[in-house]
Amino acid sequence: MSDSDHRNSLTIIDNRTGKSYELPIENGTIRSMDLRKIKESEDDFGLLGYDPAFLNTCSCKSTITFIDGDKGILRYRGYPIEQLAEKSSFLETAYLLIKGELPDKERLAVWTYNIRHHTMTHANLTKFMDGFRYDAHPMGILVGTVGALSTFYPDAKNVGQEESRKLQVRRLIGKMPTLAAMSFRHSLGFPYVLPDNDLSYAGNFLSMMFRMTERSYKPNPVLEHALDVLFILHADHEQNCSTNAVRSVSSSMVDPYSAIAAGCAALYGPLHGGANEAVIHMLKQIGSVDKIPEFIRSVKSGEGRLMGFGHRVYKNYDPRARIIKKIAFDVFEETGRNPLLDIAIELERIALEDDYFIGRKLYPNVDFYSGLIYQAMGFPTEMFPVLFAIGRVPGWLAQWIEHVKDPEQKIARPRQIYLGEECRHYVPLDDRPRRGDDEQKFGICRL
Ligand code: ACO
């Protein structure tokens, strides 16, 4: 090995055997498969890594999204999120994420046309939607209907064919707002609104959500723009829980509708897509600005968390939160000030000056202000994760394409540490201990 190879390597001494191993370091990582060489004996399986929740494991190489959590940096394909939020549109950002470059005028026009002409859904999907109960959670409806799309497009299973992938990308980005709006209107018992392809992506979504008897629906331009920016901010966030679900499921080479349905299911969970709803509940619970010090005291004494604060990756201000806070003021000028905003602003101010939050590097995250905006726009809280899902679809799709094209990827299949019983012999039913005395005698615990 040369000197520079030595510098880019890790020497491990296995104290069980005294043997030394040299593992190459590439991109700041070692390959877990290199650990397999480290064996106690010839028939030993080899050393494995144990990493529940992937806290320190890279599952892929990616060129899509870069995050520096300490510095509060987020970039899509190298472009800072601040510039995209200010200058781009959601559909252009979706193009960037999926194709890797910003489009020229002609490409953007064709892309926009293609997405807009995939906004309708098959009439049978409406019947499928009607089968949900009136109070079904819209996110549950979304999981079901996105998955059901695979039955309408059996050609989608050709995941190795580029043309097929392109078509499914257009369909999925085009149809997400339609399914999302249908899930909302279903809960109210309102008739579904057909897509209006003369409107922008966000404008058409607002129309399908809120149009009543108007002959033509004109979205409020401030709200339309705010929603478009919110979609941009949610469009990708590298290997988070839902993206990992999409990648893991699509590693079986299943169609993208099934994989994106898995992403929606992951996003449904309160630890992922549901935190902005929790922020609204928290602000309502605080009730007024003068109750904030008492609330902060309760958080510091471990009686709950300051929702919308803290992040696994960001140990600095989440750059998306800064942009969202600015949009909130634009939206409230149109809709009237959400009374919860005053509580949020004061809560943020006090928390950012408090040693508890400073010491733990807890800053506002994307969810701190987004719920307030959605609420002011007229979205019920159950729709918050659905809005997140619409924005995240281009990111999931970009990650899906990258995954299926990556020659290093195989079907995702983690290992485990087995801590269960050794081999034991089957006991016939009549010979097994029964409930009651026998259980105590045999020390059996039933759940
Ligand atoms: N309020 C009060 N204390 C907090 C908070 C919070 N929001 N977040 C973390 N802490 C404290 C913890 O109690 C812990 O303190 P300790 O060291 O004294 O025990 C310390 O900060 C570290 O917290 P962890 O839970 O280890 O941090 P982790 O990275 O695992 O959690 C998480 C990140 C889940 C986002 C957490 O900060 C949290 O629960 N925040 C509130 C919920 C929220 O806003 N989620 C949205 C995240 S953004 C997104 O998913 C789109």
TrEMBL record:
Gene Ontology biological process terms in this record: monocarboxylic acid metabolic process; tricarboxylic acid cycle
The entry's keywords: Acyltransferase, Transferase, Tricarboxylic acid cycle
Molecular-function annotations in GO: citrate synthase activity
Cellular component terms (Gene Ontology): cytoplasm
Active site: H311, D367
Coiled coil regions in record: none
Pathway assignment: Carbohydrate metabolism; tricarboxylic acid cycle; isocitrate from oxaloacetate: step 1/2
Reactions listed under catalytic activity: oxaloacetate + acetyl-CoA + H2O = citrate + CoA + H(+)
Classification via PANTHER family: CITRATE SYNTHASE
Protein family per UniProt: Belongs to the citrate synthase family.
Name of the protein in its database record: Citrate synthase
